[in-house]
């Protein structure tokens, strides 16, 4: 059975979707920047490259701690983005489930209406049919 895309898309809470779009876009931008692709502070690989291999343990440890903090920030940002996307996905799934139940109720209503219409038609035409065949 093909999906009724028009019905699904008209019943999506677009106000909520569009209301959360800037938050999701901002989170995606922060995540993208946090991955070091367009980060103004430089990527983590660049930060590790600044630590000379023959540096003492304290400076290497400080550099590694800074890299670890940046990674933790990136993980938290991606977690927030994933959470926002999963909430929006849950809302869409709930809407689709509600539409599925509504379509099922409409199908049952249509079947009941067809049955009642055919019974009414039979009751209206039965006297005429008995006269015709008599």
Short recap of the structure:
The protein has 134 residues and is mainly α.
Task: Kindly describe this structure.
With 134 residues, the chain is mostly helical. It contains 4 helices and no strands. Helix 2 (14-34) packs antiparallel against helix 4 (57-133).
Please report the total strand number as a whole number: 0
Number of helices: 4
Radius of gyration: 32 Å
What is the end-to-end distance?
Answer: 46 Å
Low-confidence stretches: none
Shape: rod-shaped
Helix content: over 70%
What pattern of helices and strands is seen along the backbone?
HHHH
Structural class: mainly alpha
Q: Give the percentage of residues in beta strands.
A: under 5%
How is the biggest beta sheet arranged?
Answer: none
What is the residue-averaged pLDDT? 77
Supply the key terms.
single chain; 134 residues; mainly alpha; rod-shaped
Chart the SSEs and their pairings.
Layout: H1 5-10, H2 14-34, H3 44-49, H4 57-133
């Amino acid at each position: 059975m093909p999906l009724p895309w028009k019905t699904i898309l008209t019943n999506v809470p677009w106000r909520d979707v569009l209301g959360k779009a800037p938050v999701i876009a901002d989170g995606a931008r922060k995540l993208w920047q946090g991955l070091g692709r367009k980060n103004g502070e430089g990527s983590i690989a660049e930060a590790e490259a600044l630590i000379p291999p023959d540096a003492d343990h304290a400076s290497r440890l400080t550099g590694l701690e800074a890299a670890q903090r940046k990674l933790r920030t990136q993980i938290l940002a991606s977690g927030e983005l994933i959470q926002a996307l999963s909430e929006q996905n849950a809302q869409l799934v709930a809407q689709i489930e509600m539409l599925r139940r509504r379509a099922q109720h409409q199908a049952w209503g249509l079947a009941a209406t067809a049955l009642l219409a055919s019974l009414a038609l039979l009751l209206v035409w039965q006297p005429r049919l008995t006269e015709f065949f008599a």
